[in-house]
């Protein structure tokens, strides 16, 4: 594979079911992301962080601001 310049871009064409596109659009609205691409970019960054934390032996848990912990772990996202 030829060496690419830092910041170079590659166009990807992704195919999603309509229900997934609706979820992406809802996330775009809820997070004020400027584009669907930005929603996917943020999702990849978050997924990368989850994978890194799991690889390093961490468990990802959700906690309410009141301190109440949700019992389920988030590791179901990482395969």
What would you note in describing this structure?
This protein has helices spanning 18-31, 36-55, and strands spanning 61-63, 69-73. The chain is mostly helical and 79 residues long.
Question: TL;DR?
Answer:
It contains two helices and two strands.
Give a topology summary.
Blueprint: H1 18-31, H2 36-55, E1 61-63, E2 69-73
Antiparallel strand pairs: 1-2
What proportion of the residues form beta strands (DSSP E)? 5-15%
Mean pLDDT: 85
Radius of gyration: 16 Å
Order of helices and strands: HHEE
What's the overall geometry?
A: extended
Count helical runs. Answer: 2
Q: Low-confidence segments, ≥5 residues, pLDDT <50?
A: none
| Count of DSSP strands | 2
Main β-sheet description = 2 strands, antiparallel
| Helix percent band | 40-55%
Q: Which strands sit side by side, in order, in the main sheet?
A: 1-2
- Derived from helix and strand composition plus strand pairing, the structural class reads mainly alpha
For this entry, give a set of tags.
single chain; mainly alpha; 43% helix; 2 strands; 79 residues; 10% strand; two-stranded antiparallel ribbon
């Amino acid at each position: 594979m030829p060496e690419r310049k830092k910041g170079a871009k590659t166009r990807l064409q992704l195919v999603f079911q309509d229900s997934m596109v609706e979820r992406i659009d809802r996330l775009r609205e809820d997070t004020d992301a400027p584009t669907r691409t930005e929603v996917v970019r943020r999702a990849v960054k978050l997924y990368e962080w989850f994978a890194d934390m799991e690889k390093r032996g961490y468990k990802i848990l959700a906690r309410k601001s009141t301190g109440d912990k949700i019992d389920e772990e988030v590791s179901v996202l990482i395969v």
